[in-house]
Request: fold
Amino acid sequence: MSVMEPILPVVVIDSPDAAEGLGRALLAGGIRQVEVTLRTAEALPALRILASVPGLRAGAGTVLTADQVHAAVEAGAEFVVSPGLDEGVVAACQRYGVPAIPGVVTATELMRARSLGLRTVKFFPAEQAGGVAAVSALSAVFADMAFVPTGGIGADRAAVYAALPSVVAVGGSWMVPRDAVASGQFARIEALCRQAVEVFQ
Ligand code: 3PG
Reply:
């Protein structure tokens, strides 16, 4: 997924009613992609709405099974993120022609991802699994792999990850707090997105 933008908001959304406002807030804040985690009952209808917002690239997150890949693609997902590496999920993504971005931590997991033909992986949970130093060490060995560090990263740390040449995007929920999404605080989300984008400029 080489066309990624540098910030990947990871959203937990409780109601599709929030989706359109969220999409508009992201765009107004300068962010044109979003990962909708399949962790809530209403994630798929919310993903469907976000995928239909012009100018926004929506993907599915927390994808654990091939069936979920099918449902996510059917709802309009343009990419699929998983917390770990599952061959069935990757194969389903390849069948549908959507990029799979599995979570990895170790060199062994990276080698498995690489042998499945993937070149972009999520490094998860980033802060807990060694942070910038770990991404940097893995990047030195796997020169053709790109990373999307995600997990425990806040506004303060994002730029440090983004400075690594192997990092194509930094993922996180810091600019889309679940309570702000749930209560429709879209101005707050827009401001947080704007701040996040500024950090990268
Ligand atoms: C994920 O699903 O990738 C993480 O939950 C997002 O990480 P964060 O909430 O710690 O930013």
Q: What stands out?
A: The mean pLDDT is 96. The first strand starts at residue 7 and ends at 11. The beta strands are 7-11, 33-37, 57-61, 80-81, 100-101, 103-104, 120-123, 146-149, 170-172.
